[in-house]
Fold each of these.
Amino acid sequence: MQKPVVRAAAVQIAPDLASRAGTMERVLNAVAEAADKGAEFIVFPETFVPFYPYFSFVLPPVQQGPEHLRLYQEAVSVPSAETRAVAEAARRRGAVIVLGVNERDGGSLYNTQLIFDADGTLRLRRRKITPTYHERMIWGQGDGAGLKVVETAVGRVGALACWEHYNPLARYALMAQREEIHASHFPGSLVGPIFGEQIEVTMRHHALESGCFVVNATGWLSEEQVASIHPDPALRKGLRDGCMTCIVSPEGRHLAPPLTEGEGMVIADLDMKLITKRKRMMDSVGHYARPELLRLVHDTRPAVPREEYAPAPVEAQPEEIETDA
């Protein structure tokens, strides 16, 4: 049975740029703080554990090797002690948690979103389908299997990361599965003020177009952290601002003042009746759709480098015996 009201929290905090363990401690502390405030749905920033690869935005590729290798060492495997700790926090506090991680799978890293249900079950592990610009030096690509809406204790939840929201077909794949709460996250502390403005436009538009709630979290870097990433003051300008942690209703309205600087949380109550109120006017995958004219073909098969195929054995046919006519 759907909850009539869901309290959501979008978390804007700084990672520990030195260690996975330090960032994990901040995650678990934030879960406890949000849950103490009644939050049942908690969203963290993009690839928050161990940290977003800010270095890739300001360092030329030839200088990225040491930091990229360090990211490999600090990245998260699924499952792992880190995922089990988050699952236990979700179960203990009865909250659905959406966490962005750098996932290591063999010799590759991925920008991965994890959705833990309120009973601790990992409902979804999805990978960003196309890393953006500088990120292509860092992460591999996801596939259509991750474009999935999952049933949780708070309703039907979908998730996309950062500029995946500029892929209208990726968004429509979730809309067509009738997501009720959309979890989104960006790195934050990147590009400058224009990035935060663009995020706000994108989040409000998706809420309106899909008729769902959007809970978006962006990260934050302190001045000391910015200085540790690059010594050049000119390049440090690209590691500031760009934050827009917000919660938006299906009518495209902020449900609480957004957070654009510093650490903190945006907390708001989601009145689920607003979904029907919005879709009565415009249901983009229902009465406002024209599937006989325009429709999405979504390949949900996982992209795997090796697939086993064992053809069925051919039954032996009895030999024909020639006879005289």
Amino acid sequence: MLTFLNKLLIGPFYAKNAGTFLVILLLAFGFLSATEHKALITAALGSPFFLAIVFVLWGLYLLKTISFIWQELTAPEHFFLQTFWLVPKPTRWALWLAIQTGLLLPIIAYAGWMVQMAVHYQKWDSLSAIVLVMLALIGTGAAAADYRLRHPNPESIRLPHLTVRLPYELFFPTFWLRYEPLSFLLTKAFSGLLLAGVCRLYPTDDYDQRLLLIGLLLAILGHSQVGNQISEFEQKYLLLLPNLPLSWLQRLRRYALTYGIIWLPELLILLRNCPSDIGFEYIIRLWLTGWGALLFMHSLAYGRNIIPDRWLSGVLATFIGGLLAIMFGVPVGVWLVLGWLGAVGFWYRSVRT
């Protein structure tokens, strides 16, 4: 039974999120050295605040695993799993605990590294907190999976809601926040924490502005799935949109404003964590570059049936090529111009063809 559930849940989870894990691995082990990782772990072990931030990130990952299991349990092709609740409760819980342990394996491995360092530095309070949190995460995930198994169609409480007329530019951001909050939270948390961390890391050594550009590149690639989400949203809810009497420039302006709203939190993060050696105008140019790059990716993908594996390969190639160009000293002004010109050019081409 465990082998069957492993093939049904654990394998597809890692396959579905391979792109996310790839970006995390590139960030964690390509961008930071082992010494810097140890320094971060040591700081977390000695600071309850930083340790709490680590626990929050682990909690976000747990929510992602719970969301995946709930989706799989309610998928039409997996309705036969409803008979799983007939398995005796101790056996069922043991299986859920094993499945949740497999899904949480990446953070369990990192927690093991933290426990090893906690033993080395004799941080017994932090060690106890890490072990208790890991047990709580595994138990919570198993309980959530078993609850959804026993309640496949839970009744929801309907509350009165306020109807507000939204402009088109807010359609997708509102939908994303309301109906896909986990995707929104993970995307913005990854991008925001990455930019904040790069800004905080900047004054600690002899870094130059290329460090900020590398952080910006990773934050942009963290939004690489947003264009596909917008296309799916329009194909499902805005079927008449392509037939509206709007020029290509009017359509581009609407998408530009939509991406500007999506990218706005990054501006606040950059301004809040701006290094003292970096001027305000450079931060603005950095943010405008990211805005143009998001619109550029949208223009590349709009109206095309792109295979996910091919898109992921393109994202990886963009990261490698962009990293090399940044290391060779291509300034932010060039990226700014290329991003916006590329967005306008490819959009005009895709609409006219």
